[in-house]
Design a protein that fits this description.
With 120 residues, the chain is α+β, with helices and mostly antiparallel strands. It has helices spanning 4-7, 28-31, 36-39, 43-48, 71-84, 109-118; strands at 63-68, 88-95. The protein is 35% helix and 12% strand. 22% of the residues are buried.
Length: 120
């Protein structure tokens, strides 16, 4: 979605880095399961709101996921990392629900990845 920065009066490098953690990068699997009964995704929404379908941007990125993660998140994280040319970090000893807690400890690989993205 190139050009969004200009439309908002922001410089082109407003986003300096990205660290998606255990992300959902394609909504199509949700639209194909029982979740669709209450989410009611339209095909246009699946296309528009699935980052894997719009792998643009030039900001440095590290894609992270938990070591103990559902297969879908593992696949989507790897696919997104590949699409944006980013390293994929599997956070050891963590699951989908607690992986973000590694950001509380500056000695963890997840925190170090964040610090590297922001230049500290």
């Amino acid at each position: 979605m190139a050009g969004w920065q200009e439309r908002l009066g922001l410089p082109p490098d407003a986003v300096r880095g990205a660290l998606p953690v255990s992300g959902l990068f394609d909504l199509a699997p949700l639209a194909a399961c029982h979740v669709q009964d209450w989410m009611r995704f339209t095909p246009a929404e699946v296309a528009a709101f699935s980052p894997l379908r719009h792998p643009a941007g030039t900001a440095p990125t590290v894609v992270a996921r938990a070591e103990v993660e559902a297969a879908g998140f593992v696949r989507q994280s790897a696919a997104y990392a590949g699409a944006v040319g980013a390293p994929l970090l599997a956070v050891p000893g963590r699951n989908h629900f607690d992986v973000i807690l590694d950001l509380c400890d500056p000695a963890t690989a997840l925190s170090r990845a964040l610090f590297a993205l922001i230049g500290e």
